[in-house]
## 1
Amino acid sequence: MNLRTFLQDLDARGELFHIQEPVSPHLEVARRIAARDGQPMLFEQLAGFSEWRMAAGFTAQRAHFARALGCGASQLVSRMAEALAAPQIPPQNSDGPCQEVVWDSIDLTRLPIPRYHPQDGGPYITAGVAIIHDPDLGRNLCFHRMRVQDARRLVVRVVENRGTHTAWRKAPEGIPMAICVGLPPHILLAASMAPPEGQDESGIAQAFAPSPMVKAKTVPLEVFAEAELVLEGILTHALDREGPFPDLTGTMDRVRQQPVLRVTAVTHRKNPIFHALLPAGLEHKNLMGMPREPTIFAEVNRVARCTGVTITPGGCSWLHAVVQIDKQGPDDARLAIEAAFRGHRSLKHVVIVDTDVDIYNPQDVEWALATRMQARRDLVIFPDQASSSLDPSAHQSPGQKALSDKIGIDATIPWGASPEDFVRVTY
């Protein structure tokens, strides 16, 4: 399955919203996406970019990922865990649709790269999957937002001490990088996951669904054969301003000095489709939060019988989680709280519930809090813990890990109590 076949499937189900009139990538596209956040959309005409279309919102619902992975929404966590545990090697093809058109000269202004917010530092690529090769650890996939600097260069937000940053620091001359835009949900999800160091995310993608690759034109890397657009280049050690830009939390991220990507090739499919991912929108939240659910699931399962995990949109799909357990002993909920924080180090608040609570329904979780939790008994506070720089309320010092107080809540039926006293009536 590629992006086009997935969009065709959505269209056949009546779920794809078509915008027929010309829409400008400069601010207007973002307003249209935000007005229908959660709705798969296809912009049929882009003002000033006659050969391009633009897709958005096709991974804004958990059901979209479930359909792409061939499972139910409640099975996503286990499906991700299975692929993480048993990656497969993607096939390498001799050619692919992503190279149907090869540009003779580089001019990034020919691409319909949106400007999402009036305060943005410039036009930004937000749905680009970066592919690099670490000399010690091998291939690595990840997301980076990228500001257009000029016709041949992008400024790349590289998070410190993560995969790209580690490889980039090893190479004083810079590292080859390829950016794939316009990918199907299963590859986007794989690229968002956090496997053990040295494990290639493309193997997770292949475990989800066929994900063939082809050799890039100007850099020693392989790229996804059915991507809509591929940018190749060298991530140099030249630095330039990156930001401001809306963060996952919906607040503006600050300006930093970040590495410059010098683009050496642009290839794309005929009649290409650009993927516009709205910052802090539901697509962004899903791709940030969902890939952390299997790591929480695995850690909690070491100490209790875990039956479900969700990282919630209301918690910015990064800072809050609900964990469902089949309680077997008096300490299970407390142990599950501690394990959840190990499974996702940026987690700030976690709620533990019983199997009769729908973790995807905020009202159901709130009901459990209202009827099963007492603060003195069930609230656990962990002060001054290493946390996420995305949390604007955390204590942040330059060059140091952000610190935050973390809270775990046991909203399960108290051990030893009569379960009948906590059962909801049905009609």
## 2
Amino acid sequence: MLKYVLLGALSYQPLTGYQIKQFIDRSAKHFWYAQTSQIYRTLDQLQAEGLIRHERPETGDVADRRLFHLTESGRADLLEWLAQPMTELQPTKDSLLVRLFFSAQIDKETVLTQLRLQRALHQQQYKLLRDDIHAIIRTSAEQYPERQRDALMWDIARRQGELAEEMVIRWLGETIQRIENEF
């Protein structure tokens, strides 16, 4: 999947590896996370496959400043992938649910403390998606009218995250209540 996050980012404009990491952290991180080492490893693979190419602008900097470009093959691969229907649900991993599943073995207050902390973290994420990210998308759409369709799709992804956070916050509240009353 990281392959397509990178191809998608490069479909907007050429970027350095550092800029790709920033792009992911500002946008896709809310639904797809990648470490810097994974990004560079995948960029090297994509280049070996001919899906991207790079150039080294003259900057006088010794740091790795490769500027990556999407090739026509890379754009075709991205478009083909985007057009393929998703016919299965994707499996998920949730470390909080794993912890809760086995938490009958620890004391009630420890469980409640962990759940309250998770609720606070999800409330922060909800606010970030609802307010900050929404404002960034709106501003981007206003500044770059040619990106109206992109902004629509970005906001659709943001809204899914917002609704998912609402659900998790609600579930955590119910779970805290049940543990307070039944544990």
## 3
Amino acid sequence: MNVLYLLIIAVIGFLIFKKYNRSDSSWKTPKTPFPPQWRNILIREVLFYNSLSKEEKERFEFKVHEFLLNCKITGIETKVETVDEILVASSAVIPIFNFNDWKYSNINEVLLYPSSFNEKFETAGENRQILGMVGSGYMEGKMVLSQQALRHALKTHRIKKTLLFMSLCI
């Protein structure tokens, strides 16, 4: 009987491990070159990218490309443009840039709201102070970001303050 309990515990443990630890085999890696128009967006919009060496820029581009292959970006009451996709991916890559093997296995979708929002995800009215958050409960696996804050943050020196919420995913 004790063996049966141990077997049940082992199976449950394995299923929990599988659920929360995406294997590298399901993680897509880029098979095509980094598009030049994406590079132009990085140069124009991402201050951090411009401070990197040539080799670091190539690694940054790879990580941005990889993130975009593995994470869906959905606009909520806003249109998601290529610049938004590159900025979302860049904001994900910056905090983990020096962790070469890091994968965002706990985030599979980013919801992009047009501006700040409140805890009920309302973009109109009072108390709209949230610029980004990581979902839990029914929002598990999702991150919610303000498009307006995202576009402003990466081309200014306000990266640390504005991207603080990204560290919640690490």
